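Lecture 7, part 2: worked example. A protein chain together with zinc ion.
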Amino acid sequence: MESKDNEFFRRELLALKEEVLRDAETTADVGAIKVKSEDLPDVVDRSSMETDRNFTLRLLDRERKLLKKIDEALARIENGEFGMCETCGEDIGRERLAARPVATLCIGCKQAQEEAQDQQEKA
Ligand SMILES: [Zn+2]
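Predicted complex, written out as structure tokens:
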């Protein structure tokens, strides 16, 4: 990966990170309102609120995981490993990285991984 590409992806990743953090804040706010309204003595609605809260927590969990991936990608840019497939060591490819800058696998390895997961789910 050329250094100008590194700089491009570093900026992409930082922008993505800001976006995720903003989303996470919004999600957390919604979650806070839900938790508050749970104090209401309406038992009937409690289970649906519980579900909403679980949904919020799941969303935040997903955002946390994505933030971790972004940080890892930024670290790979720092140590010059960005854009290299974790499995086969080949170039992931600029086009794929532009669509998904946190990708750690080339398209071939990604497909192989997904097929393996499919097999596991069917088993
Ligand atoms: Zn690969």
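Residues 85-123 form one domain. The radius of gyration is 19 Å. Keep this in mind for problem set question 3.
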